[in-house]
Amino acid sequence: MSTIRGRLLVILALVIASVISLIPRHVTQRVPDMATGRMKDTSVRRVPINLGLDLRGGVHLALEVDQSKGPVPDCADAIQRAERVVRTRIDEFGTTEPVVQIVGRCRLIVELPGEKDVNRAKGIVQRTAFLEFRITDMRNVFRDVIPSMDVALRAAGVRGPAAGPSNAVARLLGQDTTKAAAGPDTTNAREGPLTSLLFQGSLAGEYLVPEEQWQKADSLINRVDVKRLIPRGVELFWGAQVESRGARSYRALYAVEDRPIITGECLTKAQPRRDPLTNQAVVHFDLTHRCGRIFGDATARHVGDYMAIILDGRVQGQPPVIKSQIRNEGIIELGSRPFADAQDLALVLRAGALPAPLTIVDETTIGASLGVDSINAGIKAGVVGIILVVLIMVVYYRVSGLLAVGALALYVLFTLAGLSAFGFTLTLPGLAGFVLSVGIAVDANVLIFERIREELQHGKLVRTAVDEGFKHAMSAIIDSNVSTALTAFILYLVGTGPVQGFAITLIIGIAASMVTAIYVVRTFYMIWLQRRPDLVTLSV
Amino acid sequence: MIRLFANANYDFIKWRRWAYALTAVMIVPGLVMLLATRLNYSIEFTGGTLIQIAVPKAKPVGVAELRAALDAGGLHGAEIQQFGADTAFQIRARLGTQANAQGGGTEETAQAAARALDARLGADGYKIDHYEAVGPKVGKELQGKAFLAIFFSFIVTLIYLAVRFEWRFGLAAVLATFHDILATIAFIRYTNLEVSLEVVGAVLLMIGYSLNDTIIIFDRVRENLRKYRRQNLYEILNLSINETLPRSILTHGTTMAATLALFALGGEVIRPFALVMTFAIFTGTFSSIYIAAPVLMLIEKRWPGQDARGARAFTGRAPEPAAQLLPRTPAKV
């Protein structure tokens, strides 16, 4: 009795867990605002199973090569290479059954089912993710030319701040360089316009600029007459984050060598981790064998120097000192940014850099790609198919068939719950596969029932026949299901997008089918035999 | 109580040479045809033309009506989606089965769409905003990765079956599954079925289904090899196939019921998937009996196992009827 009660409790717990994961809840969904035609996020209450582009529609993004930061000569080629990268990124982002397509010559469209982290996906798609490793300006060649830059700036009429860098004044003038330049009577500047903004940092090639003035400093160093003076072999990059030193926040400007040691193409692996000491998010990476050798040689030459890790033109964290030769692996620190950022960065690094930055030129909603008629036909066919399976089982196996049908209902529940838990996106073909899996799920039951019939035929008593039937059917059920699950698992590991989605459904279905056939039906039998100890014939 | 094929006693293996001939006749011409012409890939693989249209607010049009208009105009299987507002639509279509990834045919497709829409909606019933060539939805790497995945899954299956059974069983099961892939590809070639992502999914599902079926028979073979020490492999195989026959009929019956329902009622999108799955049930069943079992016998003959029963598969006495081995006790039910 107690075993039956225990089993019922387990089944009940599974059912409750499944029902909870399927209870309608508030989810954010992107819908078009009728008034403006733009997208907006709204909260909708519904069953948390994502429906694919074909069933519900979603968001349509059109991307083009961003030419604002310099012209891209061959945009068709850039888009073709970008397509592969974007597809890999979106696929890795989750099995959402997206659409990534080249339209015309130079445009890429990305369509995502409506509700899953669209903003995060947009960030992932647009990110260039160009990674470089460069040694900082150890010989301070940049610092030596700052005075001559000041001279050039003064000659061009740019004034430094008035005597004593008063915070208020500096902030006031820092907002707007043209105003500062136009100021008629700030002739008594003691410091140069650039010198007054740059503070020597804690390592060679690092300069700190007060956070409120970094835009001014940025506009100064980007002036043609200043750029001309930057020594050969040195380039300037801003740090990615604001750093606080004492009470003030600064942004770091780094002078680094103009040639990267290696770039992101060298990465084989990138994994988000937490730093065990600081608990901050970091990304671990591995290098290819060839790059590992280059990197090893360069770092051996530069022991004691600082190495800047530059991502999309921004230095990540403070450049670490090279303590010894580094070969095949390293870490990118993200400071206090959330762990999700490390996940996204690792993802885009794995997928590779975009050949050119992309911008979103259009964002619209799109309706379901299948008409209501096809969806209804699919649902009708599914219902009829399941009814047929149920009929065959009940007619052929009678009461035992009914037990199997009860277990089948649980199978449907568990599978749907599994799909919801994995955030799987359901499409019409997925639905068809699901219906088919119901037909296949009875296989385990059929194996058991046939075995019980054989045992009964061999003259065994009902109770023994049921025990033996389950026992002997077990090896067939386990071996066949495990090898199919292994196949599905390999498909998941090696395959891309749609193949992976398919593999996940298959694995969930197999797991649910084994649990229901072996465990649930067994429990039903135990209850049945418990209530009817006098049973001499079994309805199977 | 209904019992189908209980205590069946057919000499399945005897017909193996006929079965080889049948499957060769089925597969070889298909593969030869495949060398001559490619499979008919869907717009997801080839790309086509993307057309954006707007209809006047005063005369709203539904997706179904647009689809009917395009079908009548010869643009079958077009994908139509509402685009932003109620009155704007995005259409992905192609003429016939041609691939126009290079932009050729874009003009023609747009003109055909315009003619089709003119006929149904009238020239003032819609406006084409713009049209462009559209590339494939599915990356080229999908095909390569799918085949790579199948290859690796075969290796894993071999290893698993070598551990749980014996390497001979694993090899036979993998060869049977490989046969099914070839047979399904030949089938797709004969029917000139459009290869969409759903069809690829059906082929992958078929691999699991066929493997499953083979292993259930092999499980019985494993058990019977232990139970009946005196019989040769030929008899054991026949016995095992016969013993699992009721299960095969029932399982394939229920699965077939599901696929036939999908085929008959599921509509255009699901039909190719259901068709491939229906064929997969046949070829999976066939290969479990006529490829996996005889191949196991051949392997045993070539590389005999410890008790060399496989080597006896073809020698000595004529095979006895398998049913004599069954302990015959009257059913109590």
Structure, explained:
The complex is a heterodimer of chains A (540) and B (333). With 540 residues, chain A is of the alpha+beta class. Chain A has 3 domains: 2-21 and 369-531, Multidrug efflux transporter AcrB transmembrane domain (Multidrug efflux transporter AcrB transmembrane fold); 58-117 and 354-366, Alpha-Beta Plaits; 129-353, Gyrase A, domain 2. Chain A contains 14 helices and 19 strands. In chain A, strands 8-9-11-10-16-15-7-12 form an 8-stranded mixed sheet. Chain A has a 4-stranded antiparallel sheet with strand order 5-6-4-18, covered by helices on one side. A 3-stranded antiparallel sheet of chain A has the order 13-14-17. In chain A, a hairpin with a 5-residue loop joins strand 8 and strand 9 (206-210). The two termini of chain A are 23 Å apart. In chain A, 46% of the residues are buried. Chain B has 333 residues and is of the alpha+beta class. Chain B has 2 domains: 13-39 and 140-324, Multidrug efflux transporter AcrB transmembrane fold; 48-134, 2-Layer Sandwich (Alpha-Beta Plaits), CATH 3.30.70. Chain B is 59% helix and 8% strand. Chain B has 10 helices and 4 strands. Chain B has a 4-stranded antiparallel sheet, with helices on one face. In chain B, strand 2 and strand 3 (88-93) form a beta hairpin. In chain B, helix 1 (16-36) crosses helix 6 and helix 3 (63-72) crosses helix 4. The longest helix of chain B is centred in the C-terminal third of the chain and has 32 residues, at 271-302. The radius of gyration of chain B is 26 Å and the shape is elongated. The chains are: A alpha+beta (540), B alpha+beta (333). At the A-B interface, helix 2, strand 5, strand 18, helix 11 and helix 12 of A face helix 3, strand 2, strand 4, helix 5 and helix 7 of B.
